[in-house]
Automatic annotation (TrEMBL):
PANTHER family, per database record: GNAT FAMILY, PUTATIVE (AFU_ORTHOLOGUE AFUA_3G00765)-RELATED-RELATED, N-ACETYLTRANSFERASE DOMAIN-CONTAINING PROTEIN
Name of the protein in its database record: GNAT family N-acetyltransferase
Residue ranges that the Swiss-Prot or TrEMBL entry lists as coiled coil: none
Organism of origin: Paractinoplanes ovalisporus
Alphabetical list of Pfam families matching this protein: Acetyltransf_3
SUPFAM superfamilies in the cross-refs: Acyl-CoA N-acyltransferases (Nat) (SSF55729)
Amino acid sequence: MTDASVPGREVLLETDRLWLRPWRVAEAAIHRELWTERDERVPPHRRIDADGHPTVAELAERIRANPPSTTGFLAIERKDAGDVIGYCGLIEGQETPGEPELAFELFRRAWNQGYATEASTAVLDWARSSGYERLWATVREWNTASRRVLAKLGFTETDRREADPLYGTTLFVTRRL
Ligand SMILES: CC(C)(COP(=O)(O)OP(=O)(O)OC[C@H]1O[C@@H](n2cnc3c(N)ncnc32)[C@H](O)[C@@H]1OP(=O)(O)O)[C@@H](O)C(=O)NCCC(=O)NCCS
């Protein structure tokens, strides 16, 4: 892995097939395409609304305002094709300060080729090198693919779950680094 722990240096992670690096403002439209592919069971605040929000400009502003530090979202770029296939990263946990949440999302065309697992492995190393000792993830009970990725990465389920009859129960899983 490229050394991502040097303060002030842009985060850059490398795996066999992938680069993980900050989103570029010019890639806001690509980011928005991911939103358009989301499952209908994803809650409305994470979907494009009837008025088209978030717009490309709004997502560009979010990218500009949130450069990754020890947490943040990293665009996943394939080394061979040079295309961005999604993102993987860490969100500072609301419930558990100092124990961020792992998150990932890929374009459908890139699913089931091991990319989320490969990208997450690098993000786990990044988290470890930043000094974190435990990570969390939240996943809807119906999301078999995401649950499988988390299991492959060594996350285990806890007793904590939040029922939601509309969009599905959220499971809280965790992994010590
Ligand atoms: C979750 C997601 C990132 C997985 O990405 P991916 O690159 O396809 O993941 P991987 O290829 O590394 O692993 C997927 C695993 O799930 C399995 N899987 C996928 N769909 C499945 C299904 N419907 N039923 C059972 N297993 C399934 C695959 O077989 C694979 O497991 P295996 O290696 O044991 O065969 C991708 O599906 C996605 O972007 N989903 C939408 C966003 C999302 O749900 N993000 C997570 C929110 S918690």
